[in-house]
Design a protein that fits this description.
Number of helices: 3
Distance between the termini: 39 Å
CATH superfamily of the largest domain: RNA-binding S4 domain
Strand order of the largest sheet: 5-4-7-8-9
Largest sheet: 5 strands, antiparallel
Oligomer: single chain
Radius of gyration: 18 Å
Low-confidence stretches: none
Number of domains: 3
Structural class: mainly beta
Shape: globular
Number of strands: 19
CATH topology of the largest domain: Structural Genomics Hypothetical 15.5 Kd Protein In mrcA-pckA Intergenic Region, Chain A
Mean pLDDT: 90
CATH architecture of the largest domain: Roll
CATH class of the largest domain: Alpha Beta
């Protein structure tokens, strides 16, 4: 089914409960938004699905510097949306209330993205594959551990550097009751899979799986 009842959209979606009965569905509903909702309802650069399809066919819409092929394309947290005709770039982020929001960014920021390492595999030839939170699987010689983050060069499809999960590092919370807030890591209890963050001057305990190191 390609549609979802408006009343059942995830809490993160900035969709009003009033309006048409259905909205477009995306395969990764809790991790991102469909391209149609972003371009029609948030950026308002198209009026309907037909206009977006026309833009897609003309390769006018890029996500992470790759043309999209479907109006249901999942745009995930921290993904970059580029509108070719206007040369404008946007990043999908989270507001302080935990809802997805679009923020315009300069071109120099549009070629990079941060993603979290969720798994790590050693392949034949002792090559290391990093499996990331946005679904990417990247071979890299950079030393990183699970739960660290990486800075990705989107145009060259490679990892620029590792952002370790450690005390003093800035982090953003993307799940749970503190979703959308950011802070600084103060303590890490890996055996309990939890960390203490300083969020707006308050000590806040957050599960490690609910936040990522960003700086």
């Amino acid at each position: 089914m390609t549609h979802l009842k408006r009343q059942k959209t995830p809490r993160k979606w900035p969709v009003t409960k009033k309006g048409t009965k259905y909205v477009v569905r995306t395969p990764e509903m809790n991790k991102g938004l469909p391209a149609l909702i972003i371009l029609r309802d948030m950026l308002k650069v198209v009026q309907n699905r037909k206009e977006l399809k026309k833009s897609i066919n003309a390769k006018h819409v890029l996500v992470n510097w790759k043309p999209i092929i479907d109006v249901r394309k999942s745009v995930l947290l921290l993904d970059v949306i580029t509108l070719v005709p206007s040369k404008k770039n946007y990043r999908l982020g989270l507001s302080k209330t935990g809802k997805f929001e679009i923020v315009e960014i300069p071109e120099k920021e549009s070629v990079i993205k941060i993603s979290k390492i969720v798994n790590k595999k050693i392949l034949k030839g002792k090559k290391t594959q990093l499996n990331l939170s946005d679904g990417r699987n990247i071979l890299s010689e950079i030393k990183c551990d699970v739960d660290d983050s990486v800075l990705i060069d989107l145009k060259n499809r490679k990892i620029e550097k590792c952002i370790p999960l450690r005390e003093g590092t800035k982090a953003i919370i993307f799940e749970g009751k503190h979703s959308g807030k950011s802070g600084v890591i103060k303590k890490i209890a890996k055996e309990k899979k939890i960390a203490e963050l300083d969020v707006d001057g308050k000590k806040t305990n957050v599960l490690i799986k609910q936040f990522m190191a960003v700086e």
